[in-house]
């Protein structure tokens, strides 16, 4: 059971790290603000979500696991809001539309 | 493995610090400074200094970053003019030499520290039980060095008075910031409706766990201030006029309670800020709970800047 949990953790975190990498490559390579934002959401939403999911079996208490999920949900809320604000500012004619 | 991570962290910190110094655009420099603060938070966590990390994230990166972004937008009009009058070569070389010398002196001091460094940590650990709190950082801040913490809280208040005094005579005692513009369906208004209840709980939780785990009034107060700022920025709530009685009371209450407990110590425990036997923890909690709202209001108003509108303005 322990080994199964550890394997699950490793797979989930590696997948999460892959999404972070992909998001970062997109942030650096994509041509404009809107597509770069699109790339970033992959890192925030999926990447962090998978890392949290992978860490859940390692959490020593239920309360600690719930806190990690709460952190992920708050990051989702904040990143979705900030993406909207940046996209709106870019559409209104920011420095690099 | 962890050494590789630490080295990567150090390299990133140095690169970001360099970028922040050399960036030409003020906004780019501020962006560098905020990311630098967040990375520094990670460095403190790596050093197992979670209390310092929390403070760095909340106040060093968050609050100072927000202050600097505000300053950037105020400076935008004059930025081109400021860049045109570039200081002469001699001035720049002199500035570089002085800055390098200061950095070298600090580095030398750190490197020349005896190993193990001079420390009062064993004494703190020994006397921790007498304070009633479980977190040694809180014990130092609220008991062994309570004087420093009290002065910190009072200095913030002086800072706020300094900012207010930048107001023009016409608006003295008025409302800080610009008149709110509400976009009822805007995404910011949505966030300002969803987040503050969660932030309120988190802020009070951080204060409460501060007795036994990393946390405390400064970090909790910053979270509360951030929630209020979100409400103010979204336009759902207008900043109060700084001459209002409840604002003044909220600002003064925390430091006043702190001083009161301190004076009480002179009579009961024989020293300013001394706590009588067995009452240390309740008194510490009284001070922390009194300081939390005061700090939140002080930090929010610090960020809102000097009054710019009359009291009756909408």
TrEMBL record, chain A:
Q: Name one Pfam family in it.
A: PhaG_MnhG_YufB
Q: Which keywords are on file for this protein? A: Membrane, Transmembrane, Transmembrane helix
Q: Please report the name of this protein according to its UniProt entry.
A: Monovalent cation/H(+) antiporter subunit G
Naturally occurring in which organism (per UniProt): Dyella halodurans
Q: Where are the transmembrane segments?
A: 7-28, 69-87
Among InterPro entries, the record links this protein to: PhaG_MnhG_YufB (IPR005133)
Q: Origin, by domain of life?
A: Bacteria
Automatic annotation (TrEMBL), chain B:
Q: Where is the MrpA C-terminal/MbhD domain?
A: 11-76
Q: Which parts of the chain span the membrane according to its record?
A: 39-72, 93-113, 150-167, 187-208, 220-237, 249-273, 279-304
Task: Note the Pfam families from the entry.
Answer: MbhD, MnhB
The source's domain of life comes to Bacteria
Where's it found, cell-wise?
A: Cell membrane
Na+/H+ antiporter MnhB subunit-related protein domain location, by residue? 187-299
Give yes or no: UniProt keyword Cell membrane: yes
Q: How does it sit in the membrane?
A: Multi-pass membrane protein
Please verify whether the record's keywords include Cell cycle.
no
Write down the InterPro entries for this protein, in alphabetical order: CPA3_antiporter_subunitB, MnhB, MrpA_C/MbhD
Keyword terms, alphabetized? Cell membrane, Membrane, Transmembrane, Transmembrane helix
Q: Major location, coarse class? A: membrane
Q: Which family does it belong to?
A: Belongs to the CPA3 antiporters (TC 2.A.63) subunit B family.
The protein, known as? Hydrogenase subunit MbhD domain-containing protein
Q: Which organism is it from?
A: Dyella halodurans
């Amino acid at each position: 059971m322990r080994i199964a949990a550890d394997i699950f953790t490793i797979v989930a975190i590696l997948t999460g790290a892959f999404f972070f990498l992909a998001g970062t490559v997109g942030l650096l390579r994509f041509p404009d603000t809107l597509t770069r934002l699109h790339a970033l959401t992959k890192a925030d939403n999926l990447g962090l979500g998978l890392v949290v999911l992978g860490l859940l079996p390692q959490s020593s208490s239920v309360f600690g696991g719930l806190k990690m999920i709460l952190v992920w949900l708050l990051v989702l809320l904040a990143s979705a809001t900030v993406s909207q604000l940046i996209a709106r500012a870019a559409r209104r004619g920011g420095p690099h539309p | 493995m962890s050494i590789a991570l630490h080295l990567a962290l150090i390299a990133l910190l140095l690169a970001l610090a360099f970028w922040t110094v050399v960036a030409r655009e003020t906004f780019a420099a501020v962006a560098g400074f905020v990311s630098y603060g967040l990375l520094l938070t990670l460095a403190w966590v790596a050093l197992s200094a979670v209390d310092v990390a929390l403070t760095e994230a909340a106040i060093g990166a968050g609050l100072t970053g927000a202050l600097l972004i505000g300053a950037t937008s105020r400076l935008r009009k004059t930025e081109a003019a400021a860049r045109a009058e570039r200081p002469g070569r001699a001035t720049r070389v002199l500035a570089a030499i002085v800055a390098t010398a200061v950095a070298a002196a600090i580095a030398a001091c750190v490197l020349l520290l005896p190993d193990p460094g001079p420390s009062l940590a064993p004494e703190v650990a020994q006397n921790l039980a007498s304070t009633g709190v479980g977190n040694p950082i809180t014990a130092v801040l609220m008991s062994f060095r309570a004087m420093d913490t009290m002065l910190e809280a009072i200095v913030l208040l002086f800072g706020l008075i300094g900012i207010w005094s930048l107001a023009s005579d016409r608006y003295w005692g008025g409302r800080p910031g610009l008149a709110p513009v509400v976009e009822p369906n805007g995404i910011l208004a949505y966030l300002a409706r969803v987040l503050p209840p969660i932030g309120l709980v988190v802020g009070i939780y951080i204060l409460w766990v501060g007795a036994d785990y990393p946390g405390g009034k400064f970090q909790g107060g910053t979270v509360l201030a951030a929630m209020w700022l979100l409400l103010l920025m979204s336009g759902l709530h207008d900043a109060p006029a700084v001459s209002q009685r409840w604002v003044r009371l909220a600002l003064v209450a925390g430091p006043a309670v702190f001083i009161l407990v301190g004076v009480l110590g002179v009579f009961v425990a024989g020293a300013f800020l001394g706590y009588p036997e067995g009452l240390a923890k309740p008194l510490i909690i009284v001070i922390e709970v009194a300081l939390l709202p005061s700090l939140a209001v002080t930090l929010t108003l610090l960020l809102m800047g000097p009054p710019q509108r009359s009291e009756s303005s909408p």
